[in-house]
Structure formats: C-alpha cells, structure tokens
Design brief:
InterPro entries: A/G_AdeGlyc_MutY, DNA_glycosylase, Endonuclease3_FeS-loop_motif, HhH-GPD_domain, HhH_base_excis_C, HhH_motif, MIG/MutY, MutY_C
Strand content: 5-15%
CATH architecture of the largest domain: Orthogonal Bundle
Keywords: 4Fe-4S, DNA damage, DNA repair, DNA-binding, Glycosidase, Hydrolase, Iron, Iron-sulfur, Metal-binding
Radius of gyration: 25 Å
EC number: 3.2.2.31
Shape: elongated
Number of domains: 2
CATH class of the largest domain: Mainly Alpha
Largest sheet: 4 strands, mixed
Number of helices: 15
Number of strands: 7
Protein name: Adenine DNA glycosylase
CATH topology of the largest domain: Endonuclease III, domain 1
Order of helices and strands: HHHHHHHHHHHHHEEEEHEEEH
Catalytic activity: Hydrolyzes free adenine bases from 7,8-dihydro-8-oxoguanine:adenine mismatched double-stranded DNA, leaving an apurinic site
Strand order of the largest sheet: 4-1-6-5
Distance between the termini: 68 Å
DNA sequence: TACACGTGGGG
DNA sequence: TCCCCAAGTGT
C-alpha cells in the first residue's frame, strides 16, 4: 500500500463500513431490469448502456435490446444495422458497435461464455477498467474495483480526497483505495451499493447526508465539506459548427439519404445531405456545390424549413435545413439511398436528423 | 494527457 | 437559457 492510500485509510473502519453499506443496499436497492438475475451478458449490456447515461434513459432501451438480442449468440449473429437501430437515440454509438464486436469475440473465442478473469475481459472492445470490474463483481462475485463517477464522488466525501476527479490520473487512487475496502464476501453488493449510494443519497448537488447509511464514516460530513467535494474541473464549451442540410426529393417523391462513415462522429448512422459551412458565400450555393461533388447531381433548393442547434459533448451543430428537388439521377453507391417516407423509419438516424424527419411530417 | 464521442433531464 | 451532468472508453 503506498503512502497516500495508507494515510487515507488511517483509522477507517472498513469492516463496519462494508456492513453498513451492504445492509442499506440490500434493503433499499431499486428494482432494475438488469438486476433480475446475474446473467453476465445482461450485466454486460446494461453496463455498456449505463456509461455516461442515466438509469431512467437506459431502462426502455435495455428491455427492447434484450428482447431483440436475448443471448450472446443472438447479438453475435445480428446485422449491425439492426443493432444500431436498437441503439438509436441512446448516443455514443461506438458503444453499440464495440459491444457487438466484443460479443462476437466471446462467441468465437470463449464458446459464448463471458470471461471471468480481469486479463481476458479487459481485452474486449468497449470494456475498460470500470466495466471489467463491474461485470466481474456483479456477475461473478469477484472482488475487483468498479470505479465510476459515483464511486469517486462517494469516496471523495467519505475519505476526504481532494483530488480532481476529472483528471484520468486520479482514478488510480480510487481504485487502490477500493481494493483495500471492498468486501471480499460480497463484492457485488459492495460495488453496486457504492454506486446506488451515489445515485440516490450521495448526489452531486445537495446530498442527503441525514439519510445516509454511512454518515458515521464520512469525513466530509464530519467537517461539513460535502458540498465542496468532489473536486471536479470544468469541461470546455462545445465548439460551434455551422451546417446546411437539405431534404431532397426526387421526381417520384423519394428522399435522398446517406450513411455516415464507419468511424468518427455518429459512425454508420444515416442522415440527410449536409455540408459544414465556411465563411462567405450563400448557404444554398455551398450546399449545391457539395451535392454536385458528393452525389453528382443538380438540385433546386426551394425553402428553408427549419433552423436549430443540436449540442454534443464537444461541439454544437448550428443547422439550417432546406427542402429541395433532385434534377436527374443520383450516383448509385452503397452508402446512398433513395427511400419513401415510410422507409425512413427503418434506418438509424442521429437525433438531430430525427428532428428533421419530424419537420418533413409537418410540411406534408 | 487531452480530446473525441450523444443525449435528455434537472437545477 | 444555460450549464452540469450520468454506472466511461478509445485514441
């Protein structure tokens, strides 16, 4: 144990802490669909969905996803487009692609059994240190740390850790501390109890210290610093990106859509033709030029039908949406389609483009 | 290390 | 309206 951790755990009664935390968790835990059993596959899917995503948001996605892909084999054999469609609206779409890739790996290499050791499970795509620990502890009851934002917040307050939890380097401190205080008898309830406590009691703002089952163990509560902890530096503001979009119909009334590249932002999702605007020049002209280059066709741009912002973690699309007509034919490619309005719902769109689909409905 | 990578809810 | 998030991972 290094010096910093020794200092932090000085006079800390981890046995009593485990008992108080786990007793509370067993009595107060929420009924969540991924807690119905310990199927490693279901735990895995839930942990991926829960990354940076609220429980209430995940629940319906999890139910639908498990209905559609109930087993490792079912997900391994599914079409990627169907997986992305099931993920539509959940965000961070690489999670879905990495999950299916890793599930195929488990099907091929591990006879469809999720590995139960840190070495092998950590190799799987999309399974980082948190998710590895979560699956090992929850599905297999193995005492591995599962340090997420909740755990860092709770431990910051309990032990009085004044490190910036936004810095990647500080997660090591929390992992090491957790290795020393985790319950060897019930690591599943310990890890889930820490996260449940963070979600329900030890919240980021206005924590409910008077209801806290481990209040007696909490240094922050003792010194009244629970509102100051954890230390968390601020993120940069999203960068604005002006974009012109056009909803194009051909002579038969079919809409032109294209599949985004399989890497980067919104990978492999479908969208309406659009171009990032540069300074100077009419938006319509830039759009027509872009369409000519990308789709090799001429278009008539008729009206502006919407303008709105869509904010991502790191950037802000400033969208101007036009409606227009295709003159002639479109270059035929695998990632370009002409589809009826009814067929649009078969494709997975990012939310910004779902909003545009909704605009079409209103305009017809 | 720092940034890319989404979305909808809540104060 | 704005800002902060919410059970992180990949590069």
């Amino acid at each position: 144990m290094n010096e910093k951790v020794t200092e932090l755990l000085h006079l800390f009664d981890e046995k009593q802490f485990q008992y108080d935390l786990i007793s509370w968790y067993k009595n107060e835990q929420r009924n969540l669909p991924w807690r119905e059993n310990q199927d490693p596959y279901r735990i895995w899917v839930s942990e991926i969905m829960l990354q940076q995503t609220r429980v209430d948001t995940v629940i319906p996605y999890f139910e639908r996803f498990i209905s559609k892909f109930p087993t490792i084999e079912a997900l391994a054999n599914a079409e990627e487009s169907d997986v992305l469609k099931a993920w539509e609206g959940l965000g961070y779409y690489s999670r879905a692609r990495n999950l299916q890739s890793a599930v195929r790996e488990v099907a091929d290499t591990y006879n469809s059994v999720v590995p139960n050791n840190p070495k092998e499970i950590a190799k799987l795509k999309g399974v980082g240190p948190y998710t590895a620990g979560a699956i090992l502890s929850i599905a297999y009851n193995i005492p591995e740390p599962a340090v997420d934002g909740n755990v860092m917040r709770v431990l910051s307050r309990i032990l009085g850790i004044w490190e910036d939890i936004a810095k990647p380097s500080s997660r090591k401190t929390f992992e090491e501390v957790t290795r020393h205080i985790i319950s060897e008898e019930d690591p599943s309830s310990f890890n889930q109890g820490m996260m449940e406590l963070g979600a329900i009691i030890c919240t980021p703002k206005s924590p409910s210290c008077l209801l806290c089952p481990v209040q007696n163990h909490c240094r922050a509560f003792k010194e009244g610093s629970q509102e100051e902890l954890p230390i968390k530096s601020k993120k940069k503001a999203p960068r604005p990106v002006p974009i012109a979009v056009v909803v194009l119909k051909d002579l038969r009334g079919k809409y032109l859509i294209r599949k985004r590249p399989d890497k980067g932002l919104l990978a492999s999702l479908w969208e309406f033709p659009n171009v990032e605007l540069t300074e100077g020049g009419l938006k319509e002209d830039q759009l027509r030029k872009h369409i000519k280059e990308e789709y090799d066709c001429d278009v008539a741009i008729e009206n502006e039908i919407a303008a709105f912002d869509h904010v991502f973690s790191h950037l802000k699309w400033q969208l101007t949406v036009y409606i227009g007509t295709i003159q002639g034919t479109v270059k035929s490619e695998e990632n370009v389609r002409l589809v009826n309005k009814d067929e649009l719902e078969e494709f997975a769109f990012p939310v910004a483009h779902q909003k545009i689909v909704a605009t079409i409905e209103v305009n017809e």
